[in-house]
Amino acid sequence: MNMKQYLATTLFGLENVLAGELEALGAGSVRAHNRAVSFDGDAAMMYRANYHLRTALRILKSLNSFPARSEDEVYRGIRAMEWERYLDTRNTISVDTVLLSKRYRHSGFLSQRVKDGIVDRFRDRTGRRPSVDIKNPDVRIHIHLNDTHCSVSLDSSGESLHKRGYRTQPYLAPLNEVLAAGMILLTGWSPEEAFLNPMCGSGTLCIEAGMIARGLPGGYFRSGFGFQRWREYDPALFESIRREKYLEPHGEFRILACDHAGAAVQAAQQNLAGAGLLGKVALQKTAFESWETGLREGIIIINPPYGERMEATGLGELYHSIGDTLKKKFTGFRAWILSGNPEALKNLGLRTGKKLSLYNGPIHCKYHYYDLYEGTRKIVNKTKND
Ligand SMILES: C[S@@+](CC[C@H](N)C(=O)[O-])C[C@H]1O[C@@H](n2cnc3c(N)ncnc32)[C@H](O)[C@@H]1O
Questions:
Q1: 111 within 8 A of 96, measured Cβ to Cβ
Q2: CA 258, CA 292: separation in Å to the nearest integer?
Q3: What is the pTM of this model?
Q4: How many whole angstroms from 171 Cα to the centroid of ligand 1?
Q5: Exposure check for the chain: N or C terminus, fewer CB within 10 A?
Q6: Is the CB of 305 under 6 A from ligand 1?
Q7: Which atom of ligand 1 is nearest to the CA of 268?
Q8: pLDDT digits (tens, 9 = 90+) for 223-262
Q9: Is 204 touching ligand 1 by the criterion CB < 6 Å?
């Protein structure tokens, strides 16, 4: 078996969840780093990782690491690599460079030198050269440069894996699909339990939950992956991985969502249709405060507005009413709330069980857990009667 080293990149705070997903897939030497997890595997494992993982953004395949302390050394090291193993002159390429050293001026110039190294090698040998396509290249090359070494890898995913292929309607500020899947996996939800997603917006959380419940891999609806455009792509192997019975669908599951905005419900409906979940997720146009689910236990995940477009007072009231509704109508549930406004979270008036940090794009968010055990209602009533 031809084992290689890979790096799966992810969002801050999801490293351990991703490591768990990789271990469950059977990857070797799984190790969590900052916003990435390294693992070993063969080509089948790389295909499987791209197809199945819910919390990875990209799967990078390590090709080489060589000593380099200047732009010229990078150029020479790149030119010496056997690029003809991975591409030919009919292919298009793009280069992304991450600089972890102050030795270099800017990443764009380094990317240019790396491209020159590859192109010059082909031109010397064949008289022809691969061309550059920034938007939709056949082969994406990743460069990491620190003070002493240049690491070269190929991006096997192509478009970022958060682009699942089911979303057609964004509606305001949709969550990144990788973040949504990570938020669900962090709760330890299992499809035997009810899953509630009030304030669902365009439906990212309830769709990711639906895909888990139906046993659909994270990449099930994607039109393709970067590795399918590589020279060494093995279509029969990928087909056999798509047919593997790795995930079991849950016959019955209860996923419920609501939003008070008609446009959000419409967007969620279209996205649910894109994921084959229309009619399988109970979606209602209603305010959370007047939502009747008829359920007594399960998981609730809420991603309320954070206040970019709201007055601070309005936001305080909104969070206060979320807290009240949880206490009055959802005792017996476990609730998780993601908010980019930690001050607003204080208005919930609930005791926080766990506090995690995540990023929603550039916004540093708190992801808080509240156990709404039976006693919660008693505590609230007692406080009111005191
Ligand atoms: C930050 S967005 C949710 C985005 C969503 N997670 C997604 O991925 O698209 C917040 C949503 O809360 C909804 N909302 C705000 N107050 C609400 C309330 N009291 N009841 C129901 N929905 C509400 C808004 O209409 C908006 O769609």
A1: yes
A2: 10
A3: 0.93
A4: 10
A5: C
A6: yes
A7: 9
A8: 999 999 999 999 999 999 999 877 778 889 999 999 999 9
A9: yes
